[in-house]
Predict the 3D structure of the following.
Amino acid sequence: ESWKIIVRAPPVEGQANARVCAFLAKEVLGLSKKSVRVKSGELSRNKVLEIDAELSWVEGRLLAFGGQDAG
């Protein structure tokens, strides 16, 4: 499954990637920043993230968060 995240950070020196990982870890999943990282696609618009948690738990948190406005 894929999720679309809009990032305002510039794609310079990994800033956008770092913000996406930090946002997902802290705001959505309640994990440490180190728990979410880019596995592949660092320089691409499409990324694969690695998350240190059970898949079913992560899916549940993402679905629960999906209806909220992050703006």
The beta strands are 36-40, 48-51. The chain has two helices and two strands.
